[in-house]
Amino acid sequence: MNLNHVEFYVSDADAFAGGLTARYGFRPVASTGDGESVRSIALRQGEITLVVTSAASAGHPVSEFVETHGDGVSSIALRVDDARGAFDRAVRRGARPIAAPAPLGDGVTAAIQGFGDVALRFVQLPADAGDNPVPWLPVVADPGGHGTGLKVLDHFAVCLPPGGVDPHVRFFERVLGFTMIFKERTVAGEQVMDSKVVQNAGGDVTLVLLEPGHTSGEPGQIDEFVKSNAGPGVQHMAFTCEDIVTTAAALQERGVEFLDPPASYYEMVGDRVPVLREHTLEELERLNILADQDHDGLLFQSFTRSTTARRTYFNEVIERAGATTFGSGNIKALYEAVELDQSRGKS
After folding, report:
1. Domain-wise residue ranges, the chain
2. What value does the mean pLDDT take over residues 304-330?
3. Rounded to whole angstroms, what are the CA distances from 309 to 205, 214, 256, 313, 317?
4. How many CA atoms are closer than 13 Å to the CA of 63, on its beta-carbon side?
5. Which residues belong to any copy of the VOC domain (predicted)?
6. Is 316 annotated as a binding residue?
7. pLDDT tens sequence across 159-183
8. Residue 155 annotated as binding?
């Protein structure tokens, strides 16, 4: 079981895909035709495949998802050798079925509920699919151009309501055989955030499950996401790169805006990360890049501003220089930066 692609349901597939192409350097590789009732566009960069889908009819399930949650991740597609077998096993282990096994081009697909209205979709590709993860969509001419250095989908960040993390950890362990690899409690002012990380055996599907851990005080960013999204969902996806300074600069040149770390962040980063081998402090500050380290090495990450109408979904860019965790020292800085971004959206 490995990651095949991620699908977004959006109000306008062409506009959303256009943003990913113009600002992030993804290139369209396949799509349904213009004027069809459902418009899907597949985009690729590195080993990342995204499918963006919208529907013309207000009563279509795609449109209903968007009406309820806004533009966002609707499904995580898992590539398996036997979609029917994977679906049957998952249902026997307690998963809620969403779509029974059915043909998908010359392959097979089926779906179970993941979290909220986000589905986990099993995809069995035909033997002749080669390196095409979406052979059921008509291929389009390669438009050429250069990407921005994004390589692999590192992890998903999933926001859940209070008490939601442990049941979902048990779900992924029991139903899909995932393993919990990390957990943490983060305190930022009066806000508390609990997180646990689950990962598949292949190591290419990693979900950071988040819930608010406080019992009093003002709602925080996890509460705000769940409220604005009308339930659990994917808050952000992290894309890896080899050189975050080069990639972040390229993204900014294309119009991507990044969250601002707290003003004191770069004054204090040296206390946590005394040696910055790959990049200078001046480069990190200029490009709003955060730095952290664990026992395995260094980690650099930066978070984009949300461009969705509800200010829910955004992206992360990450460079792992040996580090295997998720920026423990930066979680608080991200939390505070997102709080600031959400407060700006209300003003």
Report:
1. 2-124, 150-346
2. 91
3. 27, 27, 16, 9, 21
4. 9
5. 2-125, 152-305
6. yes
7. 999 999 999 999 999 999 999 999 9
8. yes
236 is in an annotated binding site: yes
Structure-block tokens of residue 45? 């960069």
Residue entry with tokens 């109000």: 11
Query: What letter represents residue 6's amino acid?
Result: V
Which distant-in-sequence residues (6+ apart) come within 8 Å of 127 by Cβ? Answer: none
pLDDT 10s digits, 80-96: 999 999 999 999 999 99
pLDDT band at 330 (very low <50, low <70, confident <90, very high): confident
Using the 8-state DSSP alphabet, how is residue 313 labeled? -
User: Do the domains at 2-124 and 150-346 have one common CATH topology?
Assistant: yes
Which residue in the block uniquely carries the two structure tokens 């279509």? 60
For 174, residues 6+ apart whose C-beta sits below 8 A from its C-beta are 93, 94
Q: What is the pLDDT of residue 15?
A: 97
Res. 250 pLDDT band, cuts 50 70 90: very high
Tell me, which fold does domain 2-124 have in CATH?
2,3-Dihydroxybiphenyl 1,2-Dioxygenase; domain 1 (3.10.180)
Rounded to the nearest angstrom, the gap between the alpha carbon of residue 94 and the centroid of all alpha carbons in its chain is 25
Torsion, Cα 261 265 271 274, to 10 degrees, reads 60
User: If you compute the radius of gyration of the chain from its CA atoms, what whole number of angstroms results?
Assistant: 20
269: three-class secondary structure by DSSP: helix
Residues 75 and 96: their CA atoms lie apart, in Å, by 14
pLDDT tens by residue, 266-297: 887 887 787 788 899 999 999 999 999 888 99
What is the SS3 assignment for 48?
A: strand
DSSP β-ladder status, 206-212 and 118-124: unpaired
225 against 339, higher pLDDT: 225
> In CATH, what class is 150-346?
alpha beta
Q: How far is CA 6 from CA 43, 214, 278, in A?
A: 10, 31, 31
Distance CA 308, CA 316 (A): 15
Q: Which residues contact 346 (CB under 8 A, 6 or more apart)?
A: none
Residue 40 neighbours by CB under 8 Å, 6+ apart: 13, 31, 32, 51, 52, 53, 137
From CA 137, how far away is CA 122, in angstroms rounded?
A: 17
DSSP state of 266: H
pTM of the model: 0.93
